[in-house]
Amino acid sequence: MSTGPFATADASGYLSRMLRGEAARAPVLDLLDSRLQGVDAAAGTLTSTYQAGADFLNPAGQVQGGMLSAMLDDLTASLVDATLGAGQGVATLNLNVSFLRPAMAGQLTGEARLLRRGREVCHVMGTLLQDGKEIATAVTVCKIMLVPAR
């Protein structure tokens, strides 16, 4: 287990290796400007920030719901990833999003909490906040999979 603000379950897991620069960062993380702020795999919590740029906005000037959903998918799957070891990966089976208020261009903060971790399936809750107000929530079901070595 790694310690500090990025306490993952296994130092050989993908998230730990990515944080050390030993594994490639997924391109979608750059698109969303995802920045991991802290993770505690044992406590089942993760915090990340995202930057919603002008290209994320709909004609009404609000962040398009699909972009918020992508942020929540990244947020919740990253928490599951923090609990995994080498040779394991995560796939989202179900992402149920509720939009609570419009988000504007700018920074959003994501908070994820592990509700239940089974051997193969995990349930995670994620929340996006902007200026301290809840923007959207998601309940996500993720599957733990074996990933072939690359």
Automatic annotation (TrEMBL):
InterPro entries: HotDog_dom_sf, PAAI_dom, TesB_ACOT8-like_N. It comes from the Bacteria. CDD domains: PaaI_thioesterase (cd03443). Signal peptide: none annotated. Residues 63-140 form the Acyl-CoA thioesterase-like N-terminal HotDog domain. Pfam families: 4HBT_3 (PF13622). GO terms for molecular function: thiolester hydrolase activity. This is PaaI family thioesterase.
